[in-house]
Design a protein that fits this description.
This protein is of the alpha/beta class and 470 residues long. The chain contains 20 helices and 11 strands. The two termini are 44 Å apart. The protein has 2 domains: 342 residues, Alpha-Beta Barrel (TIM Barrel); 102 residues, Orthogonal Bundle (uronate isomerase, domain 2, chain A). The strands form 4 sheets. It has a 4-stranded parallel β-sheet with strand order 6-7-10-11, covered by helices on one side.
Length: 470
């Protein structure tokens, strides 16, 4: 098999004056612990601590970045073994699926996925060969042998990755069973849940009534009024906090915020219970619930994360057959100055509140988000995220926000991943990009090296720990 070697100066500037400084900055931060405050790793992986089944299920099945690209080239989801909602037949042979992956691995050239996978294969698993059609099965065998060994059990990898805190993302009705198992075990690493109530705060969700019933089951009582609904959310937030939660998470179509009267909210809630809510009802209810969640966060201290601007499930054919999170979400244009005004005017000056805003619309970085985060004490700017969690995306983020918001109105980096073994790869890329950006500022005599090293540590570790109260 053809050998792959990761260059020690990868992602650094080709200008040696900058590259040498970047290398020095990176060396000072590369071994810092990983704080992963926003992601979608399944906590059962760590509660059960069983060997990963096979390379296909470890790398491909949970990672919509990968099967999204393959699907775009006409490769069916069924052939990749992606489970269907109705249980209809899909490919079940992991070796066949892996061969398809290897045959088409060239499609990922130049993408973030290729960068992450190169690190995972080379550094995490120690496989120095290139994945190709001819090497696929030998590659698979080497990976399978490794994941069957104790050194590659999930908890062992967690410790090797030097993860200090990992946050999952959990629905408001979740029992947090696996979090309980972890806490009750003799393994004392910090895995925390994150409270995500979208399923019950978004009236446009087709399963809203079902989700309301799940929430009702979780609290142990029925609620037929808006006030009882709010009471249930208070209870669940409190429960999440007892399980270590430090944040809430809100994936909304629009960042529109608006406070309704109790009477207005009750009428909308009643229409929703009767399945009579309109699109405008849904829009207003979500806007109101963002205000309500900020109010609750001031009371209980949970950090509120808002990430708008994704057109979810753009491809109904895939959504109806395979469900959520299958690579069909598309970034949209968003507006923040007017949409966040009511929220920030009411709560943005409160020192008890932290609001972290993410965006998929890069055009808003310098025009709206950096100025807003650079003024309101409660608001912080989330990192380059999702489609922009990439070499170029991170560079654009720093260039567009730093002059207005500075470094200290941002919150470092989060990996937002479902693919557990990609966590160190993603953080390594972020640390290298930030080191290179800071090296440019040193080379231009905007910063001195001592300040750059301090900022690098803050971006990699201190800021995220402070922002999320970890």
């Amino acid at each position: 098999m053809e050998e792959v070697m990761l260059n020690v100066d990868r992602f650094f500037d080709t200008n040696p004056a900058i590259r040498n400084i970047a290398r020095e900055i990176y060396e000072s931060i590369k071994n810092l612990p990983i704080i992963s405050p926003h992601g979608h790793v399944d906590p059962s992986i760590l509660s059960e601590n069983k060997p990963f089944p096979n390379p296909t299920q470890l790398f491909l099945t949970p990672d919509h970045y990968l099967f999204r690209m393959l699907y775009s080239q006409g490769i069916s989801m069924e052939s990749l073994g992606i489970p269907t909602i109705d249980g209809s037949e899909v490919e079940t042979d992991p070796r066949k699926i892996w061969q398809i992956f290897a045959d088409n691995f060239y499609l990922f050239r130049g993408t973030p996925s290729s960068v992450w996978l190169a690190y995972e294969f080379n550094v995490v698993f120690g496989v120095k060969e290139k994945l190709t059609s001819s090497s696929a099965q030998k590659f698979y065998d080497v990976l399978q042998e490794k994941i069957n060994s104790p050194e590659f059990l999930p908890r062992a990898l967690f410790e090797r990755f030097n993860i200090e805190v990992l946050s999952t993302t959990d629905s408001s009705s979740d029992s947090l069973e696996h979090h309980k198992k972890i806490r009750e075990s003799d393994w004392k690493k910090r895995i925390v849940p994150c409270f995500r109530p979208d399923a019950v705060t978004d009236l446009s969700n087709l399963k809203w009534k079902e989700n309301i019933q799940l929430l009702s089951n979780a609290v142990g009582y029925e609620f037929t009024t808006y006030s009882k609904f709010i009471e249930a959310l208070h209870e669940r937030r409190s429960f999440f906090k007892t399980m270590g939660a430090v944040s809430t998470d809100h994936g909304v179509f629009s960042p529109f915020t608006h406070e309704l009267t109790n009477d207005e909210t009750e009428k909308i809630f009643q229409r929703a219970l009767k399945k009579q809510a309109t699109d405008d009802d849904a829009r207003l209810f979500t806007a109101h619930m963002l205000m309500k969640m900020a109010e609750m966060s001031i009371e209980d201290g949970l950090v509120i994360q808002i990430h708008p601007g994704s057109y979810r499930n753009h491809n109904p054919t895939i959504f109806e057959k395979f469900g959520l999170d299958k690579g069909c979400d598309i970034p949209m244009q968003t507006e923040y100055t007017f949409n966040l005004k009511e929220l920030l005017n009411k709560y943005g000056n409160n020192p008890k509140l932290t609001i972290i805003v993410f965006t998929l619309d890069e055009t808003t970085y310098s025009r709206e988000l950096a100025p807003l985060a650079g003024h309101y004490p409660a608001m912080k700017l989330g990192p380059a995220w999702w489609f922009h969690d990439s070499l170029e995306g991170m560079i654009r983020f720093r260039r567009m926000v730093t002059e207005t918001a500075g470094f200290y109105n941002t919150v470092g980096f989060n990996d937002d991943t479902r693919a557990f073994v990609s966590i160190p790869a993603r953080h390594d890329l972020a640390r290298r990009i930030d080191s290179n950006y800071l090296a440019e500022l040193v080379a231009k005599h905007i910063l001195d090296l001592a300040d750059a090293r301090e900022i690098a540590k803050d971006l990699s570790y201190n800021l995220v720990k402070k922002a999320y109260k970890l």
